[in-house]
Design goal:
By secondary structure, this protein is of the alpha+beta class. The chain has a single domain (4-87), classed as 2-Layer Sandwich (NE0471 N-terminal domain-like). The protein contains 3 helices and 6 strands. It has helices spanning 44-47, 68-76, 80-83, and strands spanning 4-10, 14-19, 24-28, 51-52, 58-59, 65-66. The strands form 2 sheets. It has a 3-stranded antiparallel β-sheet, with helices on one face. A 3-stranded antiparallel β-sheet has the order 4-5-6. A hairpin with a 3-residue loop joins strand 1 and strand 2 (14-19). The chain is elongated.
Length: 96
């Protein structure tokens, strides 16, 4: 799985991300803003604290982080099966 190598906060709760395979672009996280733990982003300075955590997660603090794999899928539009072929269901053939 590609690892995040750079992250930058943008306006309107968007992130610019770059991954080790060269994939890069913008992910919109505005749907999370204001809900649950993400209510901390109501102070936009908290959102701007985004960084890559020690385990490769996209983090804002010790309490707020997101899975970098999920953000990669959102960024690229790929499905988990595209990256992990073993997740594809086995195909049944006629006569088996």
């Amino acid at each position: 799985m590609p690892a995040p190598i750079e992250v930058k906060p943008l306006d309107n709760y968007r992130l610019w991300l770059r991954y080790s395979d060269g994939a890069e672009g913008v992910v919109d996280l505005s749907d999370f803003a204001g809900d649950g733990i993400f209510a901390r982003w109501n102070d936009y300075r908290e959102f701007e604290k985004v960084h890559i955590g020690p385990s490769g997660e996209i983090a804002w603090s010790d309490e707020i982080d997101m899975c970098s794999d999920a953000l990669y899928l959102k960024l690229t539009g790929k499905q988990p099966e595209d990256l992990f072929p073993n997740l594809r269901p086995l195909t049944q053939h006629a006569g088996n």
